[in-house]
Amino acid sequence: RIGIARTIAHEVRNPLTNISLAAEQVRELGESTEDRDLLLDMIDRSATRINQLVSDLLNSTRVEQLEYIQTDINILIDEALELAQDRLDLSHINLSKDYSSSLPGILIDTGKIKLAFLNIIVNAIESIEGGRGELSIRTYAANDKCHIEFRDNGIGMDEDTQLKLFEPYFTGKPQGNGLGLTHTQAIILNHKGSINVYSKPGQGSTFTIILPFNIKQETDL
Q1: Over pLDDT 70: what percentage of the chain?
Q2: Side-by-side strand order, sheet with 94-98
Q3: CA-CA distances (angstroms) from residue 46 to 10, 58, 161?
Q4: Which residues contact 117 (CB under 8 A, 6 or more apart)?
Q5: What does the alpha-carbon distance between residue 9 and residue 210 come to, in Å, rounded to a whole number?
Q6: How far is the C-alpha of 132 from the C-alpha of 163, rounded, in Å?
């Protein structure tokens, strides 16, 4: 995916640069008119927007340097929930937590994993219809790995949506850019983990993140 993203960025940015330069030359050579300036401004804005989308794509797929810290995963989830507390309150979402008290510490990049958790939480909030929201979060250990489960009673997704969910720019939100879950998946994969979703239309969604307790041990295997 990283190689594909870089190829797309290269193939898009080269002609995009030519378009921007050509628009600049038209400004310098031609006589200014209201219609001409309006169209040139449109070209400039579109070129800037496309360039930003390419940058976002590269950022969402790149392998980032991780800063490992031994962490209590339950506390980290609570910190992510704190960041989303206003949205939970405004949407009147009932939150339930079922944290395992016997989980060992986990070696992760706390900032990046917290962002991944926050993206999942916000995604759940936005999928829930007002007035009847339920979000439950569960942690447990299985097969020497840490499991974090986010379950909501939102609108759910069909199979086709689930297959495309982590693809760059895929979104069902009017204001979304389709990169939040792509970035989330990249963070989890960089930690040698996995993220899965189970959902049905009208029956909510369950996101399950699985992380090794010791990523360095996984890397050495």
Answers
A1: 83
A2: 94-98, 134-142, 145-152, 205-212, 194-199
A3: 17, 19, 28
A4: 76, 77, 80, 148, 209
A5: 31
A6: 27
The pLDDT assigned to 137 comes to 97
pLDDT exceeds cutoff 80 at 128? yes
Does position 70 have pLDDT exceeding 50, yes or no?
Answer: yes
Q: Are 94 and 134 in contact (CB under 8 A)?
A: yes
H-helix or E-strand spanning residue 106: strand 106-108
Q: Retrieve residue 1's tokens.
A: 């995916």
H helix or E strand, kind and range, residue 148: strand 145-152
In this prediction, residue 110 has a pLDDT band, given cuts at 50, 70 and 90, of very high
Question: Domains of the chain by range and CATH?
Answer: 1-60 (1.10.287), 68-212 (3.30.565.10)
Q: What is the pTM of this model?
A: 0.68
Buried b (16+ CB within 10 A) or exposed e, 102-111: ebeebbbbbe
The mean pLDDT of the chain is: 83
Q: How far apart are CA 63 and CA 20, in angstroms?
A: 30
Q: Flag whether pLDDT at 157 surpasses 70.
A: yes
Q: Which residue is listed with tokens 């070129």?
A: 47
Query: Measured between alpha carbons, how far is 204 from 135 in angstroms, rounded to an integer?
Result: 10
